[in-house]
Amino acid sequence: MKKTPDGTLPLDVSSLRVIRLATPDLPEAARVIRESFSTVVRDLGLTREAWPTHPGFMTTEGLESFYYARQMYGLFEGTAMIGYMALSEYDDRTLQLRHLCILPHRRGLGLGRLMMDHAKAEAVACIGHPPTIDSPHLALAFIDVDTGLRGWFEKQGFAYWGRLRQGRLPYAYGWMEWQEKPTR
Questions:
Q1: Domains contained in the chain, CATH given
Q2: How far is CA 69 from the centre of its chain?
Q3: pLDDT single digits (tens) 14-73
């Protein structure tokens, strides 16, 4: 297959699938998470000592520790996992989106939006009722200094609703939420 000018392979849209992960997928998922978040670790100078729970330092054991509390999904291009996300119940109308990531060499191709659309569809399906004032919500947290990421989430329909600093972590979290729009 011919490579693009930046050295990556062109996107084969027909081979893309978002699949719920099983336990045997977790080592590969941990690798995808680490590699995807390595750009954040590098750009912000994060260390395992300062932020041991940051996804850039994810281990298979770390994923296994919350496997049963979350729905984990991989984005596959053919047989290769190129993206990851997890959803967990936050309350009776809200799912929390965690660790949405795409491998660095596959970014900028609309794959994050594809994963986000899947997350929104899962939120609607999990809540299981038509859009109302209590419509399904999807919440997420991100490192609040990343204005580019915040802008991307806003383009996906998320609204910023606060900031939280936790313990000794070097950065605050920004919190955002998406709500399905009621039909008229």
A1: 13-179 (3.40.630.30)
A2: 16
A3: 889 999 999 999 999 999 999 999 999 998 888 998 888 899 999 999 999 888 778 999
